[in-house]
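Ticket #4471: structure export looks truncated?
Reporter: QA, pipeline team
Priority: medium

Steps to reproduce: submit the single chain below to the structure queue and open the exported record.
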Amino acid sequence: MITEWRNFTGTTLGWLRSKHWTAVVVRLFVLILITWQVFQWSSYRAFGDAPLVDAWPNTDFSRATVDLDEIESGGPPRDGIPAIDRPHFVSTGKAARWLNQDEPVIVLEIGRDARAYPLQILIWHEIVNDTVAGLPVAITFCPLCNASVVFERQLDAKMLDFGVTGRLRRSDMIMYDRQTESWWQQFTGEGIVGEYAGRQLKEFPSRIVAFQHFREQHPEGKVLSRRTGYARAYGKNPYHGYDSLKQGPLLLPGEVDDRLPPMERVIAVRTEYAMRLYPFSRLREKRVVNDQVGNEPIVVFSRPGTLSVLDAGAIRESRRVLSATAYSRRTEAGVLTFEQIDGRFIDRETGTSWNLMGKAINGPLAGVQLVPMPGGVHFAFAWLAFRPETSIFP
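Actual output as written to the record:
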């Protein structure tokens, strides 16, 4: 099993909560190693990138949309964190044998094909190259940003598949495609180095909810299997204690936007004309938010009880956070207004009950599915690092 730097440093963050002197020694050792790696990366840049070019001979570094000095080594080498290229799936019933009902999964629905990708698996692989309803997609998760984004893998009639470079920019994973070895920013889906520099991957709306919510809506849905071809401690968190609000993100140079605590979870909503963040700290007080972002009337639903994958060493023992989803309020019945009554999401116009997945489950509109909004759930620092022009609710 490959010993990954993120695994090692993440575990160390958990040890630091102990008062034992040995933990202090370990932390000093890790900080020295990380400093050495950053120094090594800086040295590579200073000497004309010769080692970098040797490792990436097929990447055209003369074509870049970002300053290469912003790119840092995350520790693992190229493909040291292996993407899943041949995903296997199991039924929701079989997945329930090893997947806690409150564990978070990335939910992707394309047509009638509904799939769940447990974060307990994605945290070790970060990318799944898959085909859903005939469409090639990449399901990505950056643990340092708590960012899950799904992209189409087809560009200019060329099928791409993605791997992990081992590099970071603004603490976010940099992917590469194996066809041209261009580098891509995971958070934005933008090509930043190489042949595809300046190009944009198409994003598919996805949601992060507890496994039980996916299973209730899609009892026949597919769940990514632990049969990945790799030996990993699925169910364990290699970033023990990382999502504490009291600490800052790793490997994020420069100043952090101070409008929100950097490790605050937020759900973002993006429209053609505007973007807005809804902090979880405010959603705990207001479980339903009716709002308008740009020209689009939207609603944010939230429920407590989902396990964090970035807290305890064993995910089952982690603290619980919210699940939050966002949808357009436009339907064939008109623009709806929602409220929470006795724990249920109800629209005022028809009295229909809706679930966290945005589906009408009881009432005149039963069976109607709200349209998910692009954006997703992330750490605040990550969204604001790449999209500082975003407004914050309220």
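Status: closed, not a bug. The export was complete when the record was re-opened. Leaving a note from the reviewer for reference: The mean pLDDT is 89.
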